Amino acid sequence: MCGRSNIKTNSEIKTDTYFYIGECTKITKYLSKLAEKRTRNVLAIIVMFACTSICFGEPSLTLGSNATHGRNVAGNSANPNGSVPFSKNPNKCTLIVSEGATVKNASGARIDLDSHFTSMTDNKIIVEGGDFSNGNISGAYSLSEENVNVNGNTVKINAGEGIRNVFGGYTKRGTVSGNEVFIKNEVTIGGYVYGGHVFGNGNANNNKVTISSSTDSASSVSSTSPRVSAPAPSSSSSNDERIKGNVLGGRVHGDGDAKKNIVTINDERIKGHVFGGCVDGKGDAENNEVTITNTTVGLNINGGCVFGNGYAEKNKVAITSTTVGGNVYGGYVHGNGDAENNEVTITSATVDVTVFGGFVNGNGDAKNNKFTINGGRIGKNVFGGFVYGNNKGNATGNTVTISGTPKFRADRILCGGIGANNESDAFTFIPSATAIPCYQNWLLGL
Q1: Nearest-angstrom CA–CA distance, 26 and 33
Q2: pLDDT tens, position by position, for the chain (446 residues)?
Q3: What's the CA gap between 67 and 44, in Å, rounded?
Q4: What are the C-alpha distances in Å from 168 to residues 192, 249, 293, 433?
Q5: Ordered strands of the 119-121 beta sheet
Q6: What are phi and psi of 231, to 5 degrees?
Q7: Is there a contact between 129 and 101 (Cβ–Cβ < 8 Å)?
């Protein structure tokens, strides 16, 4: 770690040389020689460097105009292989990428090899421009086969081109928690956006993704390095999706929990799915939230989902003035487990397919889920709670509340809840009308 070791480069970083930010005692003389020779063959640097032989504080690296690096660069390392050796601390580092820089994968901090570090915390990457050549951006990124917890890291993207995937925090095993991603100014992302992602087993909790064309939505992220003004938003056709893949607040690709992740999207165009928190294996998805305004989403929206055995509970989806090309789920279980106390609220929005407050495709119950709609249009059906097919489970205590004269298809199904074998004790509530049992509603086409 190096006290205010702020390093700024506007020249080429050769891939046959490596440079570690924060290794003060070893590089001070080296930097002085570079400044005297004005060489460009290794790492021509404009350095604002205040260091002593004993280093404290937060290392920071700024890549400026004409700075190029063909592989990986991070706030705690910029070397040919992108590898962080055992002695380099992947905590409290900052990387700033400015307009005119060219890099591949960029991270606030990165670990490519197994090391004694078990956490990556409080790293930042701020992107004010640059070309990423279909590379990834991450606040902190660990490829270690050991458990590494990736917590409290931040990505802020104000401009830039050629960006593929974005991760607030990524680890192969461990916990991703409290990571944040802010994207604004109509930046195009060619792949996925994750607040936190565990590739194997672990937990994804309290991660956030905020995407908006509004300049007020992204929280400011301070740094000790010089900054440049962000360029004007890039122009794009109204028919082009700015986010080409999926958006996920928190995801566990193996077994674990996804809890209290938040996705907020305003005035955007998303080609794929939007998930608050999702577990691909065994685990629970709880208290995740998705809030979307004035946006187009190409596929499904899901507050909290479990694709193995587990519970989806207390997840929320709120959609306003938005068009959704797929289904909307408050909570979703594709295995054995309950979907309980999930909520979907739609205001003046269009959903092309079906809305489910809670959905179970396995042995489990859909209980106490809510769907509320005020205006808008639903392309197919509405279920407060739903247990799919011949699975064992009941739908109880689910409700649908309708106001503001929304539009439905003539042959649609409005159903408070329906369990296995069409058994249900829930109702659909229609203002100025008698409450009608779900199965009767279905049969009468009301």
Answers
A1: 12
A2: 333 344 444 444 333 222 333 333 333 334 344 444 443 333 323 222 222 222 223 455 655 544 544 456 666 653 434 443 333 678 888 888 888 888 888 898 888 777 788 999 999 999 999 999 899 999 999 998 899 999 999 999 999 999 999 999 999 999 999 999 999 988 999 999 999 999 999 999 999 999 998 644 433 333 333 222 222 233 334 457 899 999 999 999 999 999 999 999 999 999 999 999 999 999 999 999 999 999 999 999 999 999 999 999 999 999 999 999 999 999 999 999 999 999 999 999 999 999 999 999 999 999 999 999 999 999 998 999 999 866 778 888 888 888 888 888 777 777 877 776 555 544 555 554 445 555 444 444 43
A3: 9
A4: 11, 9, 22, 48
A5: 119-121, 149-151, 174-177, 202-205, 258-259, 285-286, 312-313, 339-340, 366-367, 395-396
A6: -70, 170
A7: yes
The span from the CA of 310 to the CA of 203, in Å, is 14
**Identity of the residue numbered 391:** N
CA-to-CA distance for 162 and 133, rounded, in angstroms?
Answer: 5
Q: The tokens of 30 are what?
A: 């080296």
Number of residues that this document lists for the chain: 446
